[in-house]
Queue: 2 jobs
Job 1
Amino acid sequence: MITPPDPFDVRGRVVVVTGGLGQLGRQFAGALVGRGAQVAVVDLDIAARVDATYGPEKAGLGYFFVEGDVTSRASLERALQQIEQRWGPPYALVNNAALDSPPGAAAGENGPFEEYPEASWDRVMEVNAKGVFLACQVFGGRMARAGRGSIINIASIYGLVSPDQRIYEYRRRGGEAFFKPVAYSASKSAVLNLTRYLATYWAPHGVRVNTLTFAGVFNNQDEEFLKGYCAKVPLGRMAREDEYNGAVIFLCSDASSYMTGSNVVLDGGFTAW
Ligand SMILES: NC(=O)c1ccc[n+]([C@@H]2O[C@H](COP(=O)([O-])OP(=O)(O)OC[C@H]3O[C@@H](n4cnc5c(N)ncnc54)[C@H](O)[C@@H]3O)[C@@H](O)[C@H]2O)c1
């Protein structure tokens, strides 16, 4: 019996994952390597952080760890050069590196909108919006010259809808001036239309560009936050950190060959009501 080709096959594909030392980037890289892809993990302070994140797994043949700052075109060009020397031009790019203000961030980062620091706005926009733009220029530009590829831009439900500040009411009752800040939302909205722009721009060159929108991932958040957040999720819980891997595989493979300019939402139903 002849086995039909697997549309989700990613074997041998060179995939760049920015922010690949973080909670989700590590998952994407592992899932891709596990299916035979060759993954270039591009992140900051690689030498100091890689052992703690990947341990012995990093010696696996499918990984290449490359220093790269998404806010610097020169740094990304150096990263591309190293990746090309090792494996040739990338096939896919997962624009995953980003800054958020976690609930435990410094007081000013999570204060009222009127006092949100301009410097914090600039930093978040620089990594989350300009960083995606620069990585698309450098890695996406190379993919377009090769005439094929897939770009996956990671966004958030907070790029589609506003954070519900009522979730954080318990912190304000405790005396803090806590609000989920604005820059993250604005930066993730920017990603959605950068995706559409590039999807149409590069369609004639065989490069597909899509957004993956995620909701919150469980990471030992405090009980009161979990209660408020999960009440807003039809599935009643936060995502497990491995639950987005399938969508990344889908977009790196030919299973998504007719998809470009789209936004794939994995949010447990958060934006459905
Ligand atoms: N974790 C969640 O709950 C959640 C929810 C929705 C969307 N997302 C999105 O998923 C993606 C991954 O999130 P995460 O939770 O794994 O984040 P994380 O903070 O664990 O990892 C982010 C990684 O990006 C890297 N990074 C930051 N600035 C960089 C720069 N200038 N150059 C290169 N790398 C840089 C960091 O070093 C880090 O390794 C992000 O785009 C995030 O916005 C996450």
Job 2
Amino acid sequence: MIVASGTFGFGEEYEDFIDLNQLGAMIPKGISLKPMMGNLPPRIFETEGGILNSIGLQNPGFRYFIKNKLPFYRNIKTHLIVNFFGNTPREYIELAKRLDEVPGISGLEMNISCPNVKRGGMVFGSDPKMAHHLVCEVRKATRLTLLVKLSPNVTDIARIAKGVEDGGADAVSLINTFRAMAVNIHSRKAELGNMIGGLSGPPIKPIALRMVWETVQAVKIPVIGMGGIMKAEDAIEFILVGASAVQIGSANLVNPRTAIEVIDGIEKYLVKNQINHVRKLTGLFKPHLL
Ligand SMILES: Cc1cc2nc3c(=O)[nH]c(=O)nc-3n(C[C@H](O)[C@H](O)[C@H](O)COP(=O)(O)O)c2cc1C
């Protein structure tokens, strides 16, 4: 069980609510080489059943993260996977190199999928060739386990995943948020300062599930599923269609104990169905009706 980037702060915010040692891995807010201020407020808007955000990758930057945030993770047994991004390919490579030298990091999650920044992020994740080349270069820069986080704002996510796999990624995680917007009919302005943001939460779950299913069939590397997981049953759906692990995102903002409750629920399901390890649940989906 993994908690998704941007929805779990830097972990410390959640230690009063759950035992962080029970999580499989934590992925803190995405970091860049230099600090970033993010987008104009308002940056969060609640939609029916979901969340629209345009944080714009606000973060304190690599140096601050290493000095002030990383020490917190040293006392926790859970794996730390650092989510990172760059505005240019060179920045991605440089950051991967620097993170490679830092002790205490189990893996990297390379974000090529942020929908609400002008440069970086999604630009690299929308084209299979660009994604492939970038992953090739980052792969050379780090020996750490490399996850690549994919954007759903594409026609064929499985093709992107294949390009990323061929570039040397160890796993893909999907999905990031959908480009979306909301309008206030009284002011007639956009609800978000950046106008366009990313939609997450329950409304995106069926699409995320379809994308995970398609990706699982296209690649051999593990697929980490996410998108609208609120409860154990949701997570089980992702695992059944072939996800090797799942991430909990927006649900952390609604109920900080979601990840633990989902772990408990999956355990109960396994016991009830006499399955002795969650790994054996992966891919048990029956694609044919009969
Ligand atoms: C407020 C907020 C901030 C996010 N920040 C990041 C981020 O910095 N890097 C990243 O890769 N994904 C980020 N995401 C995307 C989530 O990690 C996740 O991919 C997405 O929300 C879909 O999962 P969910 O429906 O369970 O939330 C953010 C999502 C939200 C809601």
